[in-house]
Write a structure and sequence with these properties.
flat
């Protein structure tokens, strides 16, 4: 169960990071509220997962999922440029996250 919660929390990290970007410095209500809610749930899930999983593994997987999805979403929506190098580097992060899960 901790792994499922950790993955969902990583996805929510991408949600709050994207909402933070779209909040325009907390001047837009919708993205600001989404940021706060996603941040709280994401952190709570990370804390829950860390009760049974090692802190380093949990944090690396949480950040890796969040970073990969945030950049992937930004590239898919045109907010960030796409390049072969970026895609390969993001795939490297995904590979490392999978490797940490396999080694655990």
């Amino acid at each position: 169960m901790a792994w499922i919660v950790l993955v969902v929390s990583g996805v929510l990290e991408a949600v709050w990071a994207t909402a933070l970007s779209r909040s325009a410095g907390f001047t837009r209500l919708g993205p600001s509220v989404l940021f706060a809610v996603a941040l709280l749930i994401s952190m709570a899930g990370l804390a829950y997962a860390m009760r049974t999983l090692p802190v380093g593994t949990s944090y690396a997987i949480w950040v890796g999922i969040g970073a990969a999805l945030t950049v992937g979403f930004a590239m898919a929506t045109g907010s960030e440029s796409v390049s072969v190098a970026k895609v390969l580097l993001i795939l490297g992060i995904v590979g490392c996250v999978i490797g940490l899960k396999v080694l655990h």
